[in-house]
Amino acid sequence: MTDAFRQHAWRILEQLKVPIMTLDMMGYLTSWNQGAEQLFGYTPQEAIGQHVLFLYADEAGDGETQLAEILPEQGDAVMEVWRRKKSGENFKAVLTISLLRDDEQQPLGLVAQLSEVTQTLAPLDRQRLHASIIEDSDQGILITDIHERIVSVNAAFTSITGYLPHEAVGQTTDLLRSGVHDADFRGRVLAAMQGSGPWQGEIVGKRKSGELFPQSVSISVVRNEAGLVTHAFSIFSDISVLRETEARMQRLTNFDSLTGLPNRAHFHQLVDQGLAAARRNEGCGAILTIDLRRFDTVNETFGHEIGDELLRQVAKRFRQTLRDEDVLARTAADEFVVALLSVQKREHSGIVAQKLLATLKPGFVIESIVLHVGASIGISVFPEDGMDTITLLQFADVAVKRLKAEGESGYLLYSPEMNQRAKERWQLEGELRQALAAEQLLLHFQPKVSLRNGRIVGAEALIRWMHPEKGMISPAFFIPMAEETGLILDIGDWVLEETCRQIRRWKLAGTDMPVVSVNISARQFDQLLPVRIGAALDRHGLPAACLQLEITESLLVRGTDGVVQIMNDLVAMGLVLSMDDFGTGYSSLAYLKRFPITALKIDRSFVVGIPGDDNDCAIARAIVTMAQQLRQEIVAEGVETKAQMHFLRALGCDQMQGFLFSPAVAADELARMVREDVRLNLD
Ligand code: C2E
Ligand code: MG
Ligand code: MG
Asked: Is the minimum distance from the CB of 581 to ligand 1 under 6 angstroms?
């Protein structure tokens, strides 16, 4: 850097409006430009040669240390400092300081540049600034005079309300009035505009388009020197988007998306409120739990889309049947609940239940499939059964479970005795677990006889529970319970093992036992079933041909390829599959073709009415005719009378099983019957 250049450079700096000064390494000012003179009021003559400390404000010190200390090793330092002008005025400035070095990199001195931080604005600038802040705000701003006449609005006002400034100015705030607020509310807003104090809240306004919108508003006033209100201003934002999101959230958290009905949580809220009111005015009412029957089967047979549509239609019919003040909610896949929050009498809830059941009667047509669903409805009433939502729901559930256990559609009012039963069931479940371990379970065998020659051609293994106190408990009671809890898996394994062991015993005793069938519940039906059965047979050295499996329709309608594959595996092992309780599920005979099933057992419920009931006879006839076409073997279950036997035999049934010939008997007894070749009298 030449001296000439240095001179030249300084001349530029000197004339700059930016205040710049140089200091030697001790802190004495060595130059002072015009900007510095303007800012501080000192001329170069006054300033140069002074120590820089003479520019420091009284407040200085805070964080500001000796120059030498803050000096950067390599570059610039920037800091906020307080300085004092010649006039005595203190001011805040941003100081940029940098080190000057000579050609040998030795420090020459410091260059300091200051810029004042403007704290106050000139009045005009201030107005301009304020105006632009107001104009650019994304909140709507509305200024009114003491007569509530609009004197000024901003751009956001226009974009929110749709009114251009000239359409709004001169009008009163009635322009935006939605009409949804009462006089009292408006009175409070007006009072705020007249200076009663700031007001903040939500107001429903009306846009130019006529559309109403929720806005969050705050109102304050402007006063003159005398303290009188001259203007009021409202700052507002359109919260309709917020509201929509809120409403959507509300819908999502409180309503079932499939049917649009309240969900369980919301039902609780609504009923809690209803009960609180009922407590005050001693009202009474009821809770109905509605369990759709065989809904699973529909879902499994026809797919979830049909199932979903069915639920929507059911929900719609229920809703139409009920009064507006009744609460209807969907609380589980196939479960609805109703709260009747004011009924005159206990019996009235039964009438509502009947109406609900009746709406299901005509059936539903979905994608040209005709579906029939029934329902079990459990009812609890208040105040008799309780006065809180949870208890009432629990009791309605107890009643519905009771109905379901009996396999019935219809409705049932809760009674305390039922709760007792539910408790007993609970207890029994624990006991069943123990029974399995304590060897209280045993197998009985019911012979199947040929309708051609009356001879025993098979037997069904039926489980029995010998309860130490309660005596023999029916599997019709504990098997469904075991299925619910999953205990059926252990029980099923036990039955398989025990059946194989028994067949082995008969074999060793030299009894020529016909094939024995075992009931397999749907929950046992998994990929490993063939392996488990194979292992049980192996353990007892038995061929697969001595076992037959009875499966139920509910399994078929699960209809997945997985199920078919497992069935094929079982058949490939040499096992015979028969379908139990045929006619009670949804499956049609045509549907059956897909499965490798050899025999059909006509359910006892169709046999009961034979030969008196035309309907039962027609069903039995249809089943037999079609089964013959599919070359299925037909077994009639639960034959108790000769008349039934004759009818079924004439129809073409192959076998029968029932009390007419024999109930399920102990293993030894069956062996005796087989050995003695006891036959059914076919006359
Ligand atoms: P299921 O497989 O349909 O068995 C036939 C049921 O009808 C048996 O009842 C049998 O005793 C009864 N029964 C037979 N003939 C007559 C008759 O002429 N009149 C009447 N009224 N009833 C008759 P049980 O033994 O009480 O079994 C009921 C159900 O429990 C069985 O129905 C079956 O679904 C289930 N079950 C029984 N043992 C087992 C088992 O080891 N495993 C599985 N998963 N379920 C079983
Ligand atoms: Mg069976
Ligand atoms: Mg059966």
From this structure: yes
Cα(451)–Cα(457) distance, integer angstroms: 10
The reply to whether 340 falls in a domain is: yes
Q: Are residues 305 and 436 in the same domain?
A: no
- What is the domain-level CATH number for residue 58? 3.30.450.20
Best of 436, 444, 479 for a ligand 1 pocket test (most atoms within 8 Å of beta carbon): 479
Peptide bond into 383 cis (omega under 30): yes
* Domain, as residue range, for 48: 17-135
| Interval between CA 5 and ligand 2 midpoint (Å) | 112
Residue 58's CB is within 10 A of a number of other CB atoms, namely 9
The pLDDT tens digits of the residues spanning 510-544 come to: 999 999 999 999 888 888 999 999 999 999 999 99
Domain match, 163 and 274 both = no
- For residue 478, the CA-to-ligand 2 centroid distance in Å is 15
CA 329/CA 272 separation, integer angstroms: 14
Quick one: which atom of ligand 1 is closest to the CA of 550? 2
Domain end among 74, 109, 135: 135
- Residues 25-67 pLDDT 10s: 888 898 898 889 999 999 999 999 988 888 887 655 544 445 5
Helix (H) or strand (E) holding 305: helix 304-321
pLDDT tens by residue, 431-462 = 888 888 888 999 999 999 999 999 999 999 99
